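Dear support,

I submitted the protein below through the web form. The confirmation email said the job was done, but the results page showed an empty box. After a refresh the structure appeared. I'm attaching both so you can tell me whether what I see now is the final result or a partial one.
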Amino acid sequence: MVDIMESLGKLVPKETIGKLYDDAISGSAKEVGKIGTDVVKTARLLLAPLQYAAAYQDRLERACERISKRVPEKRRAEAPLEIVGPVLERLQYVHEGSELWDLYEEVLTKSVDAEAQKTLHPSFAQIISLLSRDEAWILYRLRDKSFGVTDHLDLDTAQNRFVNRVVQSSELPKHELFLPDLMELSYSHLESLNLASWPIEKQTPTFTVAGGPQTGIQRHSKMMLTEFGKLFVTACIPTSGFEKHAKK
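What the results page shows now:
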């Protein structure tokens, strides 16, 4: 308890910590002591990631070993500071072996490869830090193919707009995601980062009765990488081994 209280003291005024600590261990004031116990439990949750970050050196050494095996000595070059600096800063807060770790490590690998340095952009480290695990997986899958989607909407003549969207067919890998219900939110974020687009390639009016008024519209769209997205995927997503992150 002493260690956790000392750590928490960096976040909460010392006089507050002292009183909570005294009450928590004395048992003389049960209600206040209960508050102190809750603070200790909360502190453990808050500080647990920092304990993980403290082991960063060991994880970085393992990454360097893997990188040295991938980049022949004759191709090795000094890493550009504007690339490697932000990556190393963010990497300490990412779990080793996760999707985002793999993206960061791929950037580090290319940063010391004289033949691959030209594929990197200084913004890539920041972009990776903004991605969710599902968004990283979507980018991985978009590398090999675009996703076709066909949907239908009814025409609301009173409001002169299309409503009641129904997806008729979809190649989106929703079943592979950890949060499939947020698929379109993930796409919106990828679009805001200029990594993916979802244009409508064809749309056809639909009619309830042949020759009658239009009652709806059928749309054929395709989710795909943007040109910048293709550069990002080529530079940041490993060409092999990423499959281990597939949802089981």
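Response: this is the final, complete result; the empty box was a page-load delay. The mean pLDDT is 85.
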